[in-house]
Design brief:
CATH topology: Rossmann fold
CATH superfamily: Vaccinia Virus protein VP39
Number of helices: 11
Largest sheet: 7 strands, mixed
Length: 271
């Protein structure tokens, strides 16, 4: 299947980018308080960077509150850093803490950056919100210098499957964000014109004392249901009770499980 066909299949499946930007802007103040998984995944991605990497300029793509912009600045103190996010509220929150030298509002599918301006593009748990992942890879290839590295983490299908299955027992609406399959990531990366150094998926299972805590965390992250076709208005009490009952059937000794299928990718632009 071609890149265009794979990308087209996602149309109407992933949320509108304006809604994504607004949701994450609203969540800027609460995000870090519930972002343990995001910090864990981003730290794991940092650990996957090539050991000999010494960029003179890096880009934190989907930088959010700037946690990993600051980590990149600490890892590469001589480099110029750019923090870029589609959510202006996130950048306003990040700017006072520093890390990057520039903070840019921008879309990963249409980067407002010149050709060949970065030696490292780092993106952790942001690109799952981009409908046109082939377009993102094309922009990454354009913006990277020859020999530059692109490191990303994202989410693939199977994420929050327990919540999805529990809702399926209640009604047929799309209550849980949908993410592209691993096979789509694999095909688009192979066809990107970049050298695929590594691509792997790792499940991360969180446990919650109850359903309310899980949904509170998703809202605080700005990652609650943004699906096209999601039900409007308030969810009735009877449906919530049915959802709780269905999810309770999955309870483990540690609590209610919530699985995130995390994709890690390292690509390189040919010298």
């Amino acid at each position: 299947m071609t890149e265009a066909a794979l990308s087209k299949r996602q149309k109407g499946v992933l949320p509108d980018k304006g809604q994504v930007a607004a949701s994450f802007s609203r969540a800027a103040a609460s995000y870090d308080s519930v972002a343990a998984l995001q910090r864990h995944v981003g730290s794991a991605l940092l650990g996957r960077l090539p050991r000999d990497l010494q960029p003179s300029r890096w880009l934190d793509l989907g930088s959010g509150t700037g946690y990993f912009s600051r980590a990149l600045a600490a890892a590469f103190p001589q480099a110029d850093g750019v923090a870029l996010d589609i959510a202006e509220g996130m950048l306003r929150h990040a700017r006072p803490a520093g890390g990057a030298r520039q903070f840019v509002v921008g879309d990963a599918e249409q980067l407002p950056l010149r050709d060949g301006c970065a030696e490292l593009i780092f993106s952790s748990l942001a690109l799952q919100w981009c409908e046109d992942f082939a377009g993102v890879l094309g922009e990454v290839r354009r913006v990277l210098q020859p020999g530059g590295t692109f490191a990303f983490s994202s989410l693939c299908s199977g994420t929050l499957q327990e919540l999805r299955d529990s809702w399926q027992a209640v009604d047929g609406f799309a209550h849980v964000n949908r993410f592209r399959p691993l096979a789509t990531y694999q095909a688009l990366c192979r066809n990107s014109g970049l050298q695929l150094v590594g691509l792997a998926v790792r499940p991360e299972v969180l446990h919650f004392p109850d359903l309310r805590q899980l949904t509170h965390e998703l809202k605080a992250l700005g990652a609650h249901n943004l699906n096209p076709g999601r039900p409007g208005g308030l969810t009735g009490r009877a449906r919530i009770r049915a959802l709780v009952e269905a999810y309770e059937g999955l309870r483990q000794p540690e609590g209610l499980p919530a699985t995130y299928q995390v994709v890690y990718g390292i690509l390189r632009k040919e010298p």
